[in-house]
Design brief:
The protein is mostly helical and 305 residues long. The chain contains seven helices and two strands.
Length: 305
Amino acid sequence: MSSTINSNGAATPVLTLTQKAPPAAAPAPAAAAPVATDNVSISSRHPIDEKNFSWSDLGKGLAGSVVGGAVDGVLMTGTAYKHLPSAAVASFKGLYETPQIGPWLKGTLTPVLVAATVAAVALTPLVAVGYGIYSGFVHGAEENPSGAAKEAVKDAGKFSEYAKADLSGAISSFAETPLPAGKKAFDITPLDAGKALISGTAGAVIDGVGIGASTIAHIPNGLVEAVKELHKGNAALPLKVGAGALIVPAIPLTAGLGVIGGAAAGFGLGVRDGYTKGIEASVKQSFETVKEFNNFAKETTKAPF
């Protein structure tokens, strides 16, 4: 409101309208800061509780052991058999091409490599099935049979990567390493080669039969002692039953390992002892090895013989 003076000297009020500026717009709300979140994986796997192991856990564990034994038995054995020929060829090639040793020693070591290859062929399925059974029981009980199958496939994959390890480079390096100037290849005499092979053959028979027989003879008492020890503990009854059930497949696996492992070890040690000590001393050592193994088995299983 303001006033002006007219011609008569009177003040005349004048109304003046002013427009106010519109109110400033409210600032836009700030964007919410991102909230950091952790990637949380929820696992259905629960570690075995010995005291609270249920009959349901037992059922899952036994089913898992069947699945694990089958999957690992097939996949691991198949993988080993796939790569074994190339490994054997590389080994024989390295043996025959190396200038470090002479022909008689090469001929003596040839059956050692053959025995090692045969032992690997025979032992691989036993080890694979055995591992799968016991690993499958644990994973099955802690999760479910499906989880046991997945773990078995993973284990087989890891084994495959290990089996594919390229040994040819190391073998080729050994085979291609030249002899130092003026040095002759190490060799043995034909007589020493004969003593080594005869002793190796005798050792394979003595240790294979002796250790294998001792192993089989001590299995029943070992089974009884294992069951006794199981029931002494504080584990829940279902877990004791499951552990007892797992002993059953261990019987043929143990017997096979005793016979095959004894024969393979007897042959290798026999070759060594036959060359270094002679046939008679090597044969005596083979019998001593069987005796020592039998004492060990007797002490372990608390058998009367």
